[in-house]
Amino acid sequence: MKLLVLSTLLISLCTPLSGTSEAQGIALPWKKEHVDALRVFQFLNYIDFGLAEAIETEDSLVLARQYDTLASNLDLAIVRDEQVIRVIESLGRQVDRTETNRLTQQVEQIFSSRLFEAIYRSTTPTVSTEKAILSRVPLMGAPWYDYRRHRPIYTDKMRGKIALTDGQLRELTEIRKDMLRISWELFGKYDVGKSERLTEREMDRFVAVIAEDDPALRARQLKRLLQDQPAFDSFPPFWFYSGMAELEGDGDRGYASTCMDKYGSSYRDIFKKDPLLAMAATARLSLTPKNNRVQRLRNLDQVKSNCAASDWQYYLLAAVVQGEMGIIHQAREDLQRNIDNGHQISLCTRALASILYSARDIRGFGSIMSKAIESPKVKTGDILSMASQCDSPKCKEWLKEEIFRMSLTVAGVEEKCVRLEVPEGWIDFPCSMDVSVQWSDDEPGWTASLPSTALAVLPKGKEDEENRLLETPALEKDPGLPERLTATIEHPLFTIQTGWELNPPEEGMTRDILIGLGRAFPFYRPEAGSYRLIWFSVGNGPIHRYEPEPEARETIQEEPAKEEQTETEEPELPQEEPLSEDKGPSPERGDDPLSEDHIT
């Protein structure tokens, strides 16, 4: 009985419906002709999308990127229609490969700098660099996407011929006209998939919508576009740009996740590598809960299988995710790939050191820190962020030498300020920095909050030209010259506390003149007192006390005593006693040039 019911069901499914022109449109999913038709018409939509975007922007880089996606990544085993291949050939003849390669390199360099800056601007004492990577990489995506979203920023920094010529635009328009004839020929070849083919006007409207700067407005317009034309449901880029609009505008993250899933379900594997799919998988990584290990691994696999070797940002993101999941060996391999290829060596080294330290790989962590100290390509701030956790003698010695380059002075007569010199490498980041100097826990002391723009223009130091000099606002209440000061530097990557002790002021006419000038001219603030470093600590690390060398220690102890003796006591002069007959003759002076014989 069960076999009879099953056979009846199969016969009913395989029997075509009568009385409808779309009867063959319900062919079973495993029917090859059906799948081929859907893939061909989806690929036609991709071609039309590339043509519409290139004509709309009149940008040679946009054209080159669309051509690379269509020609280099197309799976010829799936799409084999001759008409489609001819269209791609015509498109390639409009691309100047030499010029676009040079422009593409500039785009990649600018993107690398922009992403680096975005990551460190998002880094705060409460937001680690790893969290900033997880939040910024999915939004900026890849160079081609960020270039498309912020073309004016890129073109202002680029050199070369970017705009398409009138001749190229005419050729692209002619190719687009041929698409109508090709679509008509393919409609006669395939019986299904016709409803998925978008018209030229619909594609132009889609290109105009995704160019909208306001992400919230873009998201609303895309939803209306789907309501007006349901065929966009089968066009994967529609779902990608819909999801990105929600993410960029802090919209509905649930709907954004649905859009990225719809991209994967509507995509028909027509490319060997799909850049949009790699970026969609990256966005899904940021939306997937950490406890969903299976889905995160699946997204990681999609990212790596669809990205290029130059997409260092994807490998950086993958390494951070793999570090969270405990896949340390693969995280190390992905970051080492970026370091070997010269992509953001300092950032990747810091991320690798952080992952190894979190995994309790002390030996690997120490090895990475030693290499970072020796490498001129690793920034000082990145080393400082991890140096306090490193117990090797090399790290400790480097840390002491770096901190002892600082200097602190108090300047001013009635309204005093603090001048602090810090090594230039500490502020070689697009970040803000807070400084506070106190002499008592009960007093607020001097404070300064410096944005990245202020840090970028700090003058050179007076004690060390490789330092940068920052000056705090003056206090209205004169604290005098406190014997001890505590200076704290709050940087997004590290926190440094230092203790200072007042050096004995030098008395003299020069000092009096400078103080007089300071009283006469309020804008002039002479140096009132200098301080020497006596202890420091970095992050949650231990307190390191300054122990001068034996010779320096003796000098420090003897000099104040000598000065005190000079100020309070006068040297005793020998008293001449009158000669008497009871006393013997005075001792001979020998060869003394000032003897009485010589004087006589």
Automatic annotation (TrEMBL):
Keywords: Signal. Residues 1-23 form the signal peptide. Residues 549-600 are annotated as: Disordered. It comes from the Bacteria. Residues 549-565, 580-600 have a biased composition (Basic and acidic residues). Residues 566-579 have a biased composition (Acidic residues). This is Uncharacterized protein. The lineage of its organism: Bacteria, Thermotogati, Synergistota, Synergistia, Synergistales.
